[in-house]
Give the backbone structure.
Amino acid sequence: MKIAWFTHRYHPCIGGAETYGRAVVKRFVRAGHEVDVFTSDAHELAYYTDRNCRKVDAPERSVVDGANVRRLPVRHYPLQRYVGKALSLVPHRPTQCRFASYMPWIPGLGSIRGDYDAVFGVGFPFTNFSHAALRTARAAGAPLILTPFLHLATPGDPVHRTYTRPHQISLLRAADLVINPTQRASETVISWGISSDRVATISMAIDRRDVIGGDRDRFRHEQSLSPTGPVIGQLGALDPNKGSCDLILACDRIHDRGRAVELVLAGNPTREFRRFLEEHPRERPWLRLTGPLPVSEVPSFYAALDIFSMPSRTDSFGIVFLEAWANGLPVVAADAGGVPEVVDDGRTGRLVPFGDVEALRAAFERWIDDPTERRRIGEEGRRHVEKGFDWDDRFDSILAHTRRLVESRGRRVSGGWGDTIGRRAS
């Protein structure tokens, strides 16, 4: 098959959609298929609207894991955010899919064409990429497969509204298949009038060998952490919606109570997170902000922790929880979005209301005081993730759906794992 993959960011960027994209794309390539990835040159999401933020240090065209990756340049214009906001209010769904105050402006994104057999679009609310995928699919006469990663959070809150807008629902209705990582997300999509036979629930996974086997002592030494004291960590974007600020406030309270704990936050800080630190000044010698970690350091990051926490309201699944469990770590998460379907409260971790700093503090102190319980929960998580959650299995499901859709368009798909697809039937 010849496949087009549209996504807002791609490796080496870190995130759930980015991890999913690379895992699936490299398996398509390994299976003998040709993949063109179309993405932006942004490394930080903030680069979409702020040229002073970080972009990917890579050429516009490159090969990653055998896939052809094209990083289309993000353009920056005066009053961009205001113009984008104004255009998002125009009562025209295609325009709303392409513009918003947070959306990147990427000339040429919607004009990509090719003789593709299947087209994938990944990652809302940046619907300009999925809308471009729709245009490419229609021009090629190919099926469109969308993985929106809906961050449903709590109904009625701002995050929920950001992912449930009419133009987004219309875009999903135009897809031949919508892949969701949780049953809750699939049920929500079906409630929007999308036929259940065009919706698939395929959970996320990990490559265990990429996240285990780290050096606990070395990482703690290099980060000036206590060799034996309790350490809590978070990996990913540092942002209020990810619960990063709540983690700091919870650890503040632990220290105010005369207890000792250290906190390691590994990832890119957003402007909102930096603003939080400015508005909450305090001496925090126990806090480590590592910045983004190289992939090679991720196993040692997990190895250095006693507890992993990401009390986020903006996660449709949370691949990092699988990674933490692979390292035998208990997790503390927010009871929001798709996470309650991933974290079994009381068995593989603890769920607390998003934004409840006191509940976070209590959950951490309970496990600090009871290392036996902490290890028991972590080992239960390890057993849970070892029962499945393998990308090869997930890819088998995605490949089967793709083959079915391609064949339904009158194209012949033969053989097994490594076979390629024939040309269009005449």
Observations:
- The first strand starts at residue 2 and ends at 7.
- The two ends are 17 Å apart (CA to CA).
